[in-house]
Amino acid sequence: MNQTSNKEFEIEVRKNIERQGENEELKKASIDWIRQSGKYSYNFSWLGRPIIQYPQDIIALQEIIWRVKPDLIIETGIAHGGSVILSASLLELNAFCGGPKDAFVMGIDIDIREHNRLAIESHPMSKRIKMLQGSSIDTKIVQLVKDLAADKKAILVILDSNHTHEHVLNELLAYAPLVSVGSYCVVLDTVIEDMPDGSYSDRPWGIGNNPKTAVYEFISKNNNFEIDKSIQNKLLITVALDGYLIRNS
Ligand SMILES: C[S@@+](CC[C@H](N)C(=O)[O-])C[C@H]1O[C@@H](n2cnc3c(N)ncnc32)[C@H](O)[C@@H]1O
User: Fold this and answer.
1) What would you report as the CA-atom Rg of the chain, rounded to the nearest whole angstrom?
2) How would you class 28 by CB atoms within 10 Å of its CB: exposed for 0-12, middle for 13-18, buried for 19 or more?
3) Ligand 1 pocket, residue 236 CB under 6 Å
4) Among 4, 25, 175, 221, whose Cα sits 20 to 30 Å from the Cα of 185?
5) Pairing assessment for the beta strands 49-51 and 44-46 based on DSSP bridges
6) Rounded to whole angstroms, how far apart are CA atoms 103 and 211?
7) How far is the C-alpha of 119 from the C-alpha of 80, rounded, in Å?
8) How far apart are CA 243 and CA 228, in angstroms?
């Protein structure tokens, strides 16, 4: 391999990502792959706890958390705890490297099962995790989170709870305004829109009623956010197609 400078390598990577974004065949193959993959996202863990994410999205979150250096991450949808532990561990690394010392994750879930709560509370990363049980769109929960956010400088929001259009739109209306300029509101599972009809017959969401339709409605009325396509063009395999929203003003 030719030795390149940092700048040249950055340019090469950017061009590669742009080429991927223009490659309709590759993008279609990636969606086809996801359509075949079933519960692939269940296969992984982070520091010992199950995380229901694709490895590609985990890398994207690492890149965002390193770049933004949040002092608060608001996450809806805790489940087994892997994703809040991921965020907490990346905040711990940021702090180790000179980032915000007291950064933490505010996780919200309507049903924090006892075994999950115990595992999260006894995890070494728990010092950077706070949890609230209740619906993420409950006005009391939203107010508690707003109060916590009031004195924070860099806020990242990650939405991964109930995936209906109405719920995600309400989460976006409640939490996106807390995102700091240059940071993100990451809306996971937008890919539901691209899955075969009937894939979620036991769920209230599906084609036409999911996080992606909520993102489109939100974006159409909030021009301080835009979809950062460079992230999905980089990942190709992601559950958050059109779900990485960057706050630009
Ligand atoms: C897909 S799982 C979250 C996965 C987790 N983020 C991870 O990466 O491992 C969805 C979670 O959302 C929670 N949930 C469902 N409806 C909710 C609501 N209205 N408010 C908050 N959480 C909700 C569920 O209890 C479940 O634990």
Assistant:
1) 18
2) exposed
3) no
4) 25
5) antiparallel
6) 27
7) 8
8) 8
Distance 81 CA to ligand 1 centre (A): 10
- Our answer on whether the CB atom of 136 is closer than 6 Å to any ligand 1 atom is yes
From first to last of the 249 residues of the chain, give the pLDDT tens digit.
567 899 999 999 999 999 999 999 999 999 999 999 999 999 999 999 999 999 999 999 999 999 999 999 999 999 999 999 999 999 999 999 999 999 999 999 999 999 999 999 999 999 999 999 999 999 999 999 999 999 999 999 999 999 999 999 999 999 999 999 999 999 999 999 999 999 999 999 999 999 999 999 999 999 999 999 999 999 999 999 999 999 999
Which atom of ligand 1 approaches the CA of 86 most closely? Answer: 8
**Sequence-distant contacts of 26-31: CB under 8 A, at least 24 apart:** 26/236, 27/236, 30/236, 30/237, 31/194, 31/241
Nearest partner of 26 among 187, 190, 215, 232, judged by Cα? 232
pTM summary value: 0.98
CA of 75 to the centre of ligand 1 (A): 9
